[in-house]
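Support request from a user on the community tier.

User writes: "When I paste my C-alpha cells into the form, the page sometimes reloads and wipes my input. The last time it worked, I copied everything first. Here is what I submitted, just in case something in the input itself triggers the reload:"
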C-alpha cells in the first residue's frame, strides 16, 4: 500500500516548535558566543544553530517516515518555516542587536572621564529617556552582582534593577519594532519584483531547499548517500577534526586554513595594496560561491583585487592620499578616502533597483490609491496595498519617534531615508550574491556628512543618528532585512499567509525580549567588563568619540572625499549601463559594492575557487556534470556546518572552543 503523504499545510505545532527553537537560540547565544567564546550559534545570514536544527529535524522526519509510516511528521513547508524563524531571530541575540546594545546605552556615562570631556560636551546632546540615568544600575551592569556567579539565572533576573531599564528598553523597543515593521513592508513590496519578475537567484537557500525537496519526494536516502555529497562532506570533516584536535592537543598536526600572503608583496609600488593580503580557506563559503551565478562570483573577487590594486596605482602616480583626509566617519571599515567610492556607488545602485522595479512600484502605488487593480499577492504575506500604507505609517512613526527625542523632521527624513536605502541595497547584495557574511564599508551617516557637512546636523541630531545607526543600521553581519527576503522566498505561494506572518512577528517580538533578558542576565551575573565584549566596547567608544569630535570641533572632510564619491557614482553608472545593455558583459555591479568590505577580505578566495570550479564544470561538462558536482559543493556546506555544530557543543563544556567560521 502506498503510504499517505503528509498534508501540505502549515500546522500550529510547527509554529510552536519554531518559536521554542527561536527562544532557545536567543537565550543561549549570548552565553555561548560572549562568555564561552565558542563557535557562534547565530552568525551571518546562514547561521549555524538554525541549520543544524533543520538538518537534525529532516533526518528525524525521514527516519519516522521510513520506520513508522503511520506517524505523521513535519512536512517540507513546515520545516522551512521553522528554519527561517530561527534564522530571523539568531542575529537579534548577537551582532544584529544585543551584542552592542547595552554598551551603546551606557558607554557615554560609564566611560566618561575628565580627560575626554564627555560629561560636559557629549552628555548634554544625548536625548533624555533613551538611556538609564541611574549610575548604580550602570555600574552594576559592568561589575555584576557580588555573588552573581553563585546565583542561578532566575535569581539574577529577579535582582536586576528593572526600574532603571524599563523606560529606555521600552523607548528603544518601539524604535526597533517600528523599523522591523517597515522592513517587513519593504520586503513585501519588493519580493514579487525580485522573485518573480527578475528571477533572482538565492544561493543561500539552495541547500535547505534541496534537503527538504529530497524529504518531500521520498529521496532522502538517495540524497544523503550520494557519493559526491559524501566526498564533499568528508573534506571539511577531516579538516576540522584534525585542526580541532590540534586546538585541544597541540602535539597533533594541523592543516592551516589561513595563509598570510602579504609578505610576498612589497610595501611600496604598484602592489602595495596587497601588503596585508590574507588567504582564508572555508569549505562552506566555497560551496556557496559555486551555487552563485558565475558572473556575480567572478565580480566579487575581481573587484576586490582591483580595489587593492588602486591603492598602489594612486601611490605610483604620486597621489599618496592620507587617511586623515577622510575627516570624521562612522563606517565600520572605512579607513582610506578611496573607499568612499562606495557612498556614490550605493546611491546609484539604489536608483537602479528602483528603476528596474519602476513598473511594479507604479502598480503598487496605483493600487494603494485605488487607481489600478491590486497586485497579485500570491508571492507576499499580505497585500501590497497594505504594505504600501504600512510602510508609510511605519516611517511616519519612526520620524515622530525621532522628533520626540529632539530631531527636526528634515534631518530625520534624510537620516531614516539613508538608513533604509543602504539596507535595501545590502539586502540585494546578500540575497543575490550568496554572501553569508557581509559588512558595510561606509555608514549611512557618512554620506550625509559628506554631502551637507557637520554643521548641517545639530548636536542632538548627530548624537541620535549615530546611536540609532549603531543599534540597527551599521553592523550588518546579522541584519534582519536580508533574512526577511529569504523568508519571503521560502514561504512564497503558501495559502497560510496570515499564519506565516503571525509566526514571523511573534518570533521577532519574542526574540527581542529574550535577547534583552539574556544579555542583561549575563552582564549582571559575570559583569560586562569580564565578558568578551572588546569589539563591542571598542566600536561603541569610537562612535561616541566621533560624536564628541564633531560637536566640539566640527571638521569638514577633505576635498578627496567628494571626488571619490563622484568617481564611485560614475563607475557604478557605467557598470549598470554595460550590464544592462550588453549580454556578454562579464561584470555584475554588486561586485563593485563589496570591493572594500571586510567580508571580501575573508571570502575573496572562496569566491575565486567556487567561480573557477563552476566555470570549468559548465565549460567541459555542461549541465549534467554541474548537477552531479553540485552535490559535492553541497557536501562542503553540510560538512562544514556539521563540524561547526559539533565543536560548538564541545566548546560549551570545554575551557576553550575551536572556531570553524569567522567571527
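"...and here is what came back when it finally went through:"
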Amino acid at each position: 500500500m502506498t503510504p499517505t503523504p503528509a498534508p501540505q499545510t502549515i500546522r500550529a505545532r510547527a509554529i510552536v516548535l519554531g518559536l521554542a527553537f527561536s527562544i532557545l537560540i536567543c537565550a543561549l547565544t549570548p552565553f555561548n558566543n560572549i562568555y564561552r567564546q565558542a563557535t557562534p550559534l547565530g552568525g551571518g545570514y546562514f547561521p549555524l544553530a538554525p541549520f543544524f536544527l533543520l538538518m537534525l529535524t529532516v533526518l528525524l522526519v525521514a527516519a519516522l517516515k521510513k520506520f513508522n509510516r503511520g506517524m505523521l511528521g513535519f512536512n517540507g513547508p513546515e520545516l522551512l518555516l521553522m528554519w527561517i524563524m530561527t534564522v530571523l531571530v539568531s542575529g537579534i541575540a548577537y551582532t544584529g542587536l544585543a551584542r552592542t546594545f547595552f554598551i551603546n546605552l551606557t558607554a557615554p556615562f560609564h566611560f566618561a572621564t575628565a580627560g575626554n570631556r564627555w560629561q560636559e560636551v557629549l552628555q548634554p546632546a544625548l536625548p533624555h529617556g533613551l538611556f538609564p540615568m541611574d549610575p548604580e544600575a550602570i555600574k552594576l551592569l559592568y561589575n555584576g552582582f557580588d555573588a552573581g556567579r553563585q546565583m542561578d539565572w532566575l535569581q539574577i533576573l529577579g535582582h536586576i534593577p528593572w526600574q532603571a531599564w524599563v523606560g529606555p528598553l521600552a523607548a528603544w523597543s518601539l524604535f526597533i519594532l517600528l523599523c522591523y515593521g517597515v522592513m517587513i513592508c519593504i520586503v513585501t513590496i519588493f519580493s514579487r519584483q525580485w522573485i518573480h519578475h527578475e528571477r533572482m537567484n538565492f544561493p543561500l537557500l539552495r541547500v535547505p531547499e534541496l534537503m527538504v525537496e529530497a524529504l518531500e519526494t521520498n529521496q532522502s536516502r538517495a540524497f544523503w548517500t550520494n557519493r559526491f555529497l559524501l566526498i564533499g562532506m568528508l573534506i571539511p570533516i577531516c579538516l576540522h577534526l584534525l585542526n580541532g584536535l590540534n586546538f585541544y592537543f597541540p602535539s597533533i598536526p594541523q592543516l592551516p586554513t589561513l595563509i598570510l600572503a602579504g609578505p610576498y608583496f612589497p610595501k611600496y609600488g604598484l602592489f602595495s595594496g596587497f601588503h596585508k593580503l590574507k588567504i582564508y580557506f572555508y569549505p562552506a563559503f566555497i560551496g556557496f560561491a559555486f551555487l552563485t551565478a558565475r558572473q556575480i562570483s567572478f565580480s566579487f573577487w575581481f573587484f576586490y583585487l582591483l580595489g587593492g590594486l588602486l591603492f598602489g596605482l594612486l601611490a605610483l602616480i604620486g597621489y599618496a592620499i592620507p587617511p586623515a583626509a577622510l575627516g570624521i566617519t562612522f563606517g565600520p571599515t572605512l579607513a582610506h578616502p578611496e573607499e568612499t567610492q562606495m557612498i556614490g556607488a550605493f546611491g546609484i545602485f539604489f536608483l537602479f533597483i528602483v528603476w528596474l522595479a519602476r513598473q511594479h512600484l507604479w502598480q503598487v502605488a496605483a493600487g494603494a490609491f485605488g487607481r489600478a487593480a491590486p497586485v497579485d499577492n500570491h508571492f507576499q504575506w499580505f497585500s501590497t496595498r497594505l504594505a504600501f500604507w504600512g510602510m508609510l505609517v511605519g516611517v511616519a512613526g519612526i520620524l515622530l519617534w525621532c522628533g520626540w527625542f529632539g530631531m527636526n523632521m528634515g534631518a530625520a527624513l534624510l537620516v531614516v531615508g539613508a538608513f533604509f536605502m543602504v539596507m535595501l541595497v545590502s539586502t540585494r547584495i546578500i540575497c543575490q550574491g550568496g554572501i553569508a557574511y557581509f559588512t558595510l564599508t561606509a555608514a549611512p551617516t557618512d554620506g550625509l556628512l559628506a554631502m551637507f557637512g557637520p554643521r548641517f546636523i545639530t548636536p542632538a541630531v548627530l548624537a541620535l543618528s549615530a546611536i540609532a545607526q549603531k543599534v540597527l543600521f551599521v553592523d550588518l553581519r546579522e541584519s534582519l532585512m536580508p533574512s526577511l527576503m529569504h523568508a519571503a522566498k521560502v514561504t512564497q505561494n503558501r495559502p497560510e499567509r496570515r499564519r506565516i506572518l503571525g509566526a514571523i512577528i511573534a518570533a521577532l517580538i519574542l526574540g527581542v525580549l529574550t535577547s534583552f533578558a539574556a544579555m542583561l542576565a549575563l552582564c549582571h551575573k559575570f559583569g560586562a567588563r569580564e565578558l568578551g565584549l572588546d569589539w563591542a566596547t571598542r566600536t561603541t567608544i569610537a562612535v561616541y568619540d566621533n560624536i564628541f569630535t564633531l560637536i566640539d570641533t566640527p571638521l569638514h572632510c577633505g576635498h578627496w572625499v567628494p571626488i571619490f564619491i563622484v568617481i564611485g557614482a560614475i563607475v557604478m553608472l557605467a557598470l549598470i549601463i554595460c550590464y544592462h545593455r550588453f549580454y556578454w558583459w562579464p561584470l555584475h555591479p554588486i561586485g563593485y559594492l563589496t570591493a572594500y568590505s571586510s567580508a571580501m577580505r575573508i571570502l575573496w578566495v572562496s569566491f575565486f575557487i567556487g567561480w573557477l570550479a563552476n566555470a570549468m564544470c559548465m565549460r567541459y561538462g555542461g549541465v549534467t556534470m554541474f548537477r552531479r558536482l553540485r552535490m559535492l559543493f553541497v557536501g562542503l556546506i553540510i560538512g562544514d556546518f556539521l563540524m561547526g555544530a559539533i565543536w560548538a557543543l564541545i566548546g560549551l563544556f570545554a575551557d576553550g572552543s575551536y572556531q570553524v567560521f569567522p567571527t
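Agent notes: The reload is a front-end session timeout and is unrelated to the input. Residues 1-7 have pLDDT under 50 and may be disordered. The two ends are 51 Å apart (CA to CA). Escalated to web team.
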